[in-house]
Amino acid sequence: MSRDLPPLNALRAFEAVARLDGVSRAAAELHVTHGAVSRQLRALEEALGTALFVRQGRGLALTPAGRRLHAAAETAFEPLRATWAELRRRPAQAPLVLGCPGSVLARWMIPRLDRLGRELPDLRLHLAASETAPDPALTGLDAALLIAAPPWPREWRVHELAPERIGPVLGPRFPAFDRLRTAAPRALLDFELLHTASRPQAWPDWAAAVGLPTGRLRLGTGFAHLYYLLEAAVAGLGVAIAPQPLVAQDLAAGRLHAPWGFVETAGRWILCEPRRRGDPRVARLAAWLREALAGDAP
User: Fold this and answer.
1) d(Cα 51, Cα 13) in Å, to the nearest integer?
2) Which residue ranges form the domains of the chain, and what is each CATH number?
3) HTH lysR-type domain location, by residue (predicted)?
């Protein structure tokens, strides 16, 4: 079956003449001469092999073939005009939908939104929290701020922001706080450790990095989300482990302490976007995030 289309420039001229009821008005809308529109109409009629307009008084009237073609062209062009207008408005008007884990949103992103608004005043964000990893298509998102280890889906364009650095933290309300804050890391083997289901490898990764036997770790109370884990540590319920940027403000305020510092893992802070889109706002946000994370580094 043939998939040929009519000459598109000629079809555009024809649709304008039929809609505006005149060659002169169509020429004005298309920013061409009266003669150019007339030539396009003749070309379309010659390609079709039949007349599309007939003279009626001082104007033109559609023939039966012209009415059919106009109905089809109108059905095609009107949604196209509406979609084009929406897409042209969207970069300036629609917010950038940014997904991130709830703990990153609550403990890192929200405290910095005021600064982000001052430094990138024309960037409107809509923040979407999720504790599940986004799918490769980043459905419903323009970008996602994540802590993840490569490899990443090939459908993503990934902006690396900073290495992930994790370490144990505890609050002054923990009964063994005074003992632990001056002890060697091995002292943690005597305690049940708070942990989170979202990062089961965090404690083993840290232990291996500092030379502790991972098999000697004793995992105690677990939490579904990192946010709750850190609230438990602040409340003095035990020793937790966390990415350094997420506890930077707690450390500065003395709500948490990190006696053994932080170690780098294979993970990275990344901002990812669908590779097929290339939204320029994402690159600007990545540069801002990179600078903000560097400012959090000890």
Assistant:
1) 15
2) 8-92 (1.10.10.10), 95-298 (3.40.190.290)
3) 6-63
pLDDT in tens, 168-192: 999 999 999 999 999 999 999 999 9
- pLDDT, averaged across the chain: 89
**For residues 239 and 232, what is the distance between their CA atoms, to the nearest angstrom?**
9
Q: Residue type for 74, please?
A: E
Does residue 91 register a pLDDT over 70? no
pLDDT in tens, 124-179: 999 998 877 888 888 889 999 999 889 999 999 999 999 999 999 999 999 999 99
Handedness of CA 97, 102, 105, 111 (dihedral sign): positive
**210/188 Cα distance (integer angstroms):** 12
Strands 143-148 and 96-100: parallel
Q: Which pLDDT does position 219 carry in this prediction?
A: 94
Residue 28 — pLDDT band, cuts 50, 70, 90?
Answer: confident
Residues 6+ positions from 259 with CB-CB distance below 8 Å: 168, 170, 180, 181, 182, 183
Give dist(CA 268, CA 160) in Å, integer: 7
Q: How far apart are CA 286 and CA 291, in angstroms?
A: 9
What is the distance between the alpha carbons of residues 286 and 120, in angstroms, rounded to a whole number?
12
